[in-house]
Design brief:
The complex is a heterodimer of chains A (447) and B (121). With 447 residues, chain A is an alpha/beta fold. Chain A folds into two domains: 115 residues, Alpha-Beta Complex (Aspartate Aminotransferase, domain 1), CATH 3.90.1150.10; 257 residues, Type I PLP-dependent aspartate aminotransferase-like (Major domain) (Aspartate Aminotransferase, domain 2), CATH 3.40.640.10. Chain A contains twelve helices and 13 strands. In chain A, the strands form three sheets. Chain A has a seven-stranded mixed beta sheet, with helices on both faces. In chain A, strands 10-11-13-12 form a four-stranded antiparallel beta sheet. Chain A is globular, with a radius of gyration of 25 Å. Chain B is of the alpha+beta class and 121 residues long. Helices cover 23% and strands 36% of the residues of chain B. Chain B contains five helices and nine strands, in the order E-E-E-H-E-E-E-E-E-H-H-E-H-H. Chain B has a six-stranded antiparallel beta sheet. In chain B, strands 4-6-7 form a three-stranded antiparallel beta sheet. The longest helix of chain B has 9 residues. The relative contact order of chain B is 0.25. The chains are: A alpha/beta (447), B alpha+beta (121). The interface between A and B is small, with 6 and 11 residues.
Chain lengths: 447, 121
């Protein structure tokens, strides 16, 4: 196909039809202050070789997570993704791994989504799960909207341990949906404090475990308090591998469990695409957002799969749909399902055990650094530590030593008065040498 | 019993109106699988959305034929939505309203007028 840009005559003819004097005139409603004066500072053209050379030089300034000790977590975790996962998701049967729009013709896609839902329900200890959301944070916002539909109330209480980005996403949706949000002050170990804010108007409480500071909490008592007030409990988890070791949201009385599934089968991917896990009780299923895959039999009695309860969805229910999500994270969900299938229950438990063991070593090494204290009382694979000085500056300094030391809390919540708090995560990829290098880099900065 | 062009029926007893969908509507919808009912105490005007009825392939709004306050909802339908198909103009009722203005009922079709209307569809 030839690519023929418009000639000046073509443009003049089109402008003449709509009555505009120039292309710039089409932008006259954009305030001058918001426009860029002049051209972007780029050469008019360059050959492919020159462009490749230039971009390669720019790319070399990046530092990939796998290039050395790496302790960033805070909602995105660097785990090993086996080569077999990458191989299987690229099989031709899965190449159009996208949410099914003519569903019943894609039985393979529906089957893996059904397996995915089964895995998510088992991991979270819930009765039903959907075919995935965009990511954990949008899943959390959808959970709040769902709780409002179920309870016919319009207020949500967010714990002080909820990831600030998740809280922001909930607030964004709540603002347009007319839902009141009550946020508790940030607290390392304060999930239980949400019960103080529950009243007769509360649709739900949102707690996170392990929370953004890494603290793992048994939220059973919070579930009881919420239920006593007629409210639902939403449990958020940003590190799905923790399900391999910790009590599940379902066991603790959650009504809706939401999690980020990136940790299983998916790379860091520069922050996305990710895959949101969303599970609930069967009695609330009709108010759930997203696509649902079900198992059935065809006219000849053979096992088959369908999208089910579609009348909740936007293409049928229009403005009264339970959500405006009309899709799912198909490819990421596939990678999740394949990796978890390969791990199995035993493998996931072992993986989670290794992550926890490496985190314990990390915590011990950092606690031994003079002036550094570990703040997280009970953790899975992530801890908050207090440094003698500014955490963002410490991260910059450690990067100079080749160590990516973690996420400064101030990066998630600027001006929160916790500039000395650093979030440090360990996984099965964290080696003992990495931990020694981290402790040395932090000690050097603290000295 | 009075009827609307949206295929709702209204049965008035004193100041309370019982509302459901007609046998024709139930037949057209096919197997009803779910009915979403309003909260007690909700106040509606004529033509406001009152309930949602779901069959295997469609979800349809049920509109308030008359205005009033919701005093009862047929919670039995949550367990046995098929009652709407089996007995649409009896046990398959949806909602009871305390009438805001009894005159609004008089403006609706009687059974003869509704049967005539169905003949035009």
């Amino acid at each position: 196909m030839r690519y023929l840009p418009l000639t000046p005559d073509d443009r003049a003819a089109m402008l003449g039809v709509i009555g505009a004097a120039s292309i710039d005139a089409l932008y006259e409603d954009v305030p001058h202050a918001a426009r860029r004066a002049g051209m972007v500072d780029l050469p008019p053209f360059q050959g492919e070789i020159e462009v490749e050379r230039h971009v390669a030089a720019l790319a070399a300034r990046n530092r990939a997570a796998g290039q050395g000790p790496f302790f960033c977590g805070a909602g995105a975790y660097r785990h090993h993704v086996p080569a077999s996962v990458d191989h299987i998701i690229q099989r031709s049967e899965f190449l159009t791994s996208y949410t099914p729009y003519q569903p019943e013709i894609a039985q393979g896609t529906l089957q893996y989504l059904f397996e995915f839902q089964t895995q998510v329900a088992a991991l979270t200890g819930m009765e039903v799960a959907n075919a995935s959301m965009y990511d954990g944070s949008t899943g959390a916002a959808e959970a709040v909207m769902m709780a409002c539909r179920v309870t016919r109330r319009a207020k949500a209480v967010l714990s002080g341990g909820l990831h600030p980005h998740y809280a922001d996403t909930i607030r964004t949706l709540a603002h347009v949906a007319g839902v009141e949000i009550v946020s508790q002050a940030a607290a390392i170990d304060g999930e239980a404090a949400v019960t103080q804010a529950i009243d007769a108007a509360t649709a739900c409480v949102v707690v996170q475990t392990p929370n953004v500071f890494g603290t793992a909490t048994d939220v059973s008592a919070i579930a009881d308090a919420a239920h006593a007030a007629g409210a639902l409990l939403i449990v958020v988890t940003t590190e799905a591998v923790s399900f391999g070791l910790l009590k599940s949201p379902g066991e603790m009385g959650a009504d809706i469990a939401v999690a980020e599934g990136q940790s299983i089968g998916n790379g860091l991917n520069f922050g996305g695409p990710y895959v949101g896990l969303f599970a609930t009780r069967e009695k609330y299923l009709r108010q759930a957002p997203g696509r649902l895959c079900g198992e059935t039999v065809d006219a000849d009695g053979r096992r088959g799969f369908v999208l089910t309860l579609s009348t909740r969805e936007q293409h049928i229910r229009r403005d009264k749909a339970t959500s405006n999500i009309c899709t799912n994270s198909g490819l990421c969900a596939l990678a999740f399902t394949i990796h978890l299938s390969l791990l199995g229950e035993t493998g996931l438990r072992r993986l989670a055990g290794i992550c926890h063991a490496q985190a314990r070593k990390t915590a011990a090494a950092l606690a031994a650094v003079p002036g550094v204290s570990v703040l997280t009382p009970r953790f899975f694979n992530e801890i908050a530590v207090r440094l003698p000085g500014d955490a963002a500056a410490a991260v910059e300094a450690a990067a100079g030593c080749g160590v990516i030391a973690g996420v400064p809390y101030s990066r998630l919540a600027p001006n929160a008065g916790r500039d000395d708090v650093l979030l440090v995560a360990a996984t099965e990829l964290t080696t003992d040498a990495d931990i020694a290098a981290l402790a040395a880099a932090i000690a050097q900065g603290a000295a | 019993m009075r009827f609307t062009k949206d295929h709702e029926w209204v049965q008035v007893d004193g100041e309370v109106a019982t509302i459901g969908i007609t046998a024709y509507a139930a037949e057209q919808l096919g197997d009803v699988v779910f009915v979403e009912l309003p909260a007690l105490g909700k106040t509606v005007k004529p033509s406001d959305g009152l309930a949602v009825v779901e069959s295997v392939k469609a979800a349809s709004d049920v509109y308030a034929p008359v205005g009033g306050e919701v005093t009862a909802a047929n919670e039995a339908l949550s367990g046995t939505p098929e009652t709407v198909n089996q007995d649409p103009e009896g046990a398959g009722w949806f909602v009871k309203l305390k009438l805001a203005d009894p005159a609004q009922v008089e403006a609706l079709m009687d059974r003869n007028a509704y049967e005539t209307f169905l003949g035009t569809l």
